[in-house]
Amino acid sequence: MRTTTKSIWAPRELNISGIRRLKLISAYDVDIQQTEFSGNITPNRDIEIFEFVFPADLTCQASWSLQGKDTGSNYWSVQISFELPHENLQIMSWVQDTMHQEWIAILELNNGPTRLMGGLPSGLKMNIGATTGSTRRSSNATSINLQAEQLIPYLELVGYENEQLFPEAGFTHGFSYAFES
Question: Which residue(s) pair with 128 in the sheet?
Answer without folding.
Answer: 144
